[in-house]
Design goal:
This protein has helices spanning 3-8, 34-38, 45-62, 75-86, 103-106, 108-115, 130-140, 149-168, 210-220, 284-288, and strands spanning 67-71, 92-96, 123-126, 173-175, 192-194, 200-202. It is α/β, with parallel strands linked by helices. It has ten helices and six strands, in the order αααβαβααβααβββαα. The protein has a six-stranded mixed β-sheet with strand order 3-2-1-4-6-5. α4 (75-86) links the parallel β1 and β2.
């Protein structure tokens, strides 16, 4: 275990994490199969899948040897990894091991390499600088992320932003699992964008619905984080993730003590002039459609 991992392995979670009480009242639902609840493709799923594969091939072709999938290890990114492996695309796979991930999330790194061993897939793992983590915790405490948005973003900066910078160094393109449906902030994002450094940013699943995601997982036996079966559609660091309740939006379990408009870590931030969708469907719509 790294110095960073050992430092945070005993970090306490916030008082309301245990029991996963939702912000709209009442306990979160018991664990269930995400595939059973949500796998329902949209009418144009086949066209979306074809567009996704085409964009991944374009990313590989336009940025030979210089493009990486920055995977969060969430279910959307697991789909992209599967497509990269399935089509044997020359796109590197990289992830951020923040030192505060759930054990179930970290376990996906060796799972990817074993599941796609025939394709020779390897995962580049980027850790935060141990010294920076130690100094941050020493100065601000183990629960700094709950004290203010600035401190929470400071923690994200050390554990996510800086390591991502190293992942993207000397690369001209990167691939993400962003979908418009995930949040209002992401509602206006495009399949092709540029990041703040001028690198090409590809969002091949941008049009996919939650039902599309789980349909693909079911149809192709894609490995995924079992926490998704515990009503965690968006999974980040353990102290900053909780289960959500029916009717809450996808990212309600991330930094739930903050205002909705602040719920980004800085990895994917909208440019001010980009349009943002006014309203996105809550999780309840996916569940009701199954009944």
């Amino acid at each position: 275990m790294s110095d960073t991992s050992s430092l945070i392995s005993t970090l306490p979670l916030p008082d309301d994490t245990e029991g996963a009480v939702s912000s709209i009242g009442g306990p979160a639902p018991a664990a269930a199969s995400a595939i059973g609840l949500y796998a329902r493709p949209s009418a144009d799923f086949d066209a979306k899948l074809a567009d996704t594969v085409a964009l991944l091939k374009a990313a590989a072709g336009e940025h030979p040897g210089q493009v990486v999938q920055a995977t969060s290890l969430g279910v959307e990114d697991m789909i992209l990894t599967d497509l990269i492996a399935r089509h044997r695309l020359p796109i590197a796979i990289g992830t951020l091991e923040t030192g505060m991930l759930h054990a179930e999330t970290s376990a996906l790194i060796p799972t990817i390499e074993s599941h796609y061993a025939a394709e020779g897939l390897k995962v580049e793992v980027y850790h935060p600088q141990a010294e920076a983590v130690i100094e941050f915790v020493r100065t601000h405490g183990e629960k700094a992320m709950y004290k203010s948005i600035d401190l929470r973003k400071g923690c994200c900066g050390i554990r996510k932003i800086e390591p991502l910078g190293r992942m993207l160094a000397n690369r001209t393109g990167w691939v993400t699992g962003l979908r418009r449906e995930q949040s209002n902030n992401r509602g206006g994002m495009l399949a092709r964008e540029q990041d703040d450094k001028g690198r090409a940013k590809f969002n091949p699943l941008i049009e996919w619905t939650w039902g599309d995601v789980w349909h693909y997982v079911q149809a192709n036996n894609v490995p995924y984080n079992p926490l998704h079966d515990q009503f965690m559609p968006s999974i980040g660091c353990a102290p900053c993730t909780r289960a959500i309740a029916v009717g809450e939006d996808f990212r309600a379990g991330r930094w739930w003590w903050e205002d909705e408009s602040a719920k980004e870590c800085g990895l994917h931030v909208h440019q001010p002039d980009e349009p943002v969708a006014e309203e996105l469907p809550p999780l309840v719509s996916s569940i009701e459609s199954k009944n």
